[in-house]
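Can't paste images in this forum, so I'm doing it all in text. The chain is below; anyone willing to post the predicted structure tokens underneath?
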Amino acid sequence: MLKSLITSTGSSLAIAVAIVAAPANAQAGSWAEADAKAREIVNKLTTDEKVAQLLNTAPAVARLNIPAYNWWTESLHGAMGGVPTTNFPEPIGLAATFDAPLVRRVAEVISTEVQGLHTLGRRTGRLGRIGTGLNTWSPNINIFRDPRWGRGQETYGEDPFLTARIGVAFVNGIQGDNPDLPNVVATPKHFAVHSGPEHSRHVDNIYPTAHDLEDTYLPAFRAAIVDGKAGSIMCAYNRVYGQSACGSQLLLRDYLRGAWDFRGYVVSDCDSVVDIYEHHKYAPDAATGVAVALTHGVDNECNNATLGGRMDLGDRYTESLRRGYIRTEDIDTALVRLFSARYRNGDLPGLSARKPNATPVSAIDTAESRELALTVAEKSLVLLKNDGALPFRPGTRVALIGPLSDATRVLRGNYSSTRSAPPISVADGLRRAMPGADVTVVPFTASVTDGDPVPGSVLVTPDGRPGIRTEYYNALDENAPPPGAERRFAVKPVLTSVEPGIVSRASEFRQVANKHKVLFTGSLVVPETGLYRLALTGVKGTLSLAGKPLVEAKRYSRWAEPLQLVDARLKKGDRVAINLQGESDIAPPAQIFWKRITDNLDLDLKAGTANADVVVAVVGLTSDLEGEEMPIKIEGFSGGDKTTLDIPADQRALLERARALGKPLIVVAMNGSAIDLSWAKDNAAAIVEAWYPGQSGGLAVANVLTGKVNPAGRLPLTFYKSVADLPAFTDYSMAGRTYRYFKGTPVYPFGHGLSYTSFRYGKLSIDPASGGIENGLTATVDVTNTGDRAGDEVAQAYITPPGFQGAPRHALRGFERVSLNPHETKRITIALSQRDLSFVTAEGDRQLIPGEYRLTVGSGQPAAGIPGTYAAYAVGKNVDLPK
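Text version of the structure:
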């Protein structure tokens, strides 16, 4: 094994040196200049300085005036940093808009806020901490091949074409108009063949068919790199054909730097390099493992140990050098790519065509970005069913039921900042959309979905002012305390403030040291008598009433721990004393969670719905049930993944009880993945799929329910009835999966979505490109709004190919979202390139395959009853396309 690894690294070296040593005229001016300046820096670094720069925490090099830099920056659907940022819908919701220009606008706002966080870090002396870099580890363009995958919510759905187009839009918005001088470097992830299960991702060894690799798993990555010009890419945890994705000849050399001519840098998923030797056992030890990654093209290693401040991680590279597994040139190759990126994104000054980043902190969380978050949430909502119950008529009396009806944490989804504009629940959204109307919230029983941040509106300081007293104490020593010892802090606070909520603002103040503690003192004033569930995260201390502890945290909670909720009966006006301590080294962020519940659901349900005209049930999942590698294991959920497509049993029972009331039942589903909606399809009067809709999600839902907004989102996933309809989760074959290859009848198909108006399609015309249809075509069709209210239509273009081995039923190859006034007609033109017309053979070759094809443009997939139009065309000769 060791001999073969060393041989492999040797061949990698020749490729790497050739890339870096290429003459300047082989690259564009800005890139070449940045590479040259990067080379100057690298040539001045010592070996110890070099290996330290290979990690996500790149320390400052004071003698060369190089500031610290941390490559760990997240912005999946909103920037994540030390100040409130804009929280947009989860990516699966962004995909449901079927609106690539809109997603680009979202990414432009995120990019601006990432730049503002960099400015904040520079101003406060915190460059080098997570969330201050001018790069971001987004978007996630893995294919959501199986609805059980907990991280599928982070993706743009199950279709390679849709994922590619939305992914390119996001990359372009993040980087800006000039990818050679990006505003922020985008990092599509996780390359490649990666989509669960979560519990085995560190050991999985996947052998996709040649057809599935080219047809499903690589197209979006190719588009992000070749079309979107992404400046970075993140390799995945799993192995592919026996080799780690972060040490893969096929992925990193043959495809990425070979066929796709990628010039940027590769970053590992966090600890995926460690997996090479610790979990995959592909390498016998750490020194060999880092050699596998580095010499195959991984330039930057994310290592979770940096979170704890470990400073010796570069020793593995030094030892690899000593043994001869890598050479100095391998390290230099990686560092030139990394420093070049820092010049081109404006982190390092001196590039002639690039001004340093100067985005003000005030550009974060603006009124305009908040408005966009609402607009995008509205456009992401999918009306799945409507028997005439929607939109609400004026004066409609609404009873809101379900654990998510007044919830706010669910709105954020995963990989999102805990801080944004105050999130708007569905209950609050309806009260805003229907001022003065009768909106009654019926509390639900204790649930696995419970726990929302306590709003600042119920907090008072010890002296009775609104908010919470917050005191910051600097640590006496920046170094980590000895094992078993506690960190020591100054006796007097360096800063005291009154904050609107339980939140540390340390990153905004230069006088607060990187290592510090924060004390929160005040009271929570109970707004309504009832039974509450309370929990603490990221803090030590107590919540007490009349001197008796209600909740006590004797240790700091850690990431991914389930909330430890405690029940307490409280009366309106009770003052729950708050005495909490957080520390800068602790995650998750300090927070008090609560939820008002009932222990007599039948009584409350009967009373709360007695005068209602309609019952709205807000049900579904949360990112505490589905997400990244989580410790949860309960009925239906394991390790972050789902084991069924059911919502929790208590919610299913609630829907049955609500249906028995005899009043119109409207189901609003919040989830990041496909769930079984067959019962709701048969029993509810209307169904709205809301995803995890972001900070303004509740108002977006309310605006759709009340008709202020006409919904037009479309499903980026197939909604199946059961996992019994699918192959095994561990099976990466696409046979029997997604709308392209599923042969059963779904509950709701990919591309489905209704409107409050109706549309008609005219005759479809097809015009071949110059030189014949083998070079592409243009499809043109008139679309008319035949109803009496304005609305958006999503025209979807599907190709049905001739039968050949591996052929899909049909495949999305174009889409356009268009707004139409009542009785207005617009002409839609969809241009399909040669690649758009191609398909993949069973052998994995992308070709224009001779035969008869059918192009359908309409409101959804080709099917009876779906508004649309079609035309036939023929491909006369075989044309091979490049990888």
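DSSP finds 22 helices and 40 strands in the chain. The chain has a mean pLDDT of 94.
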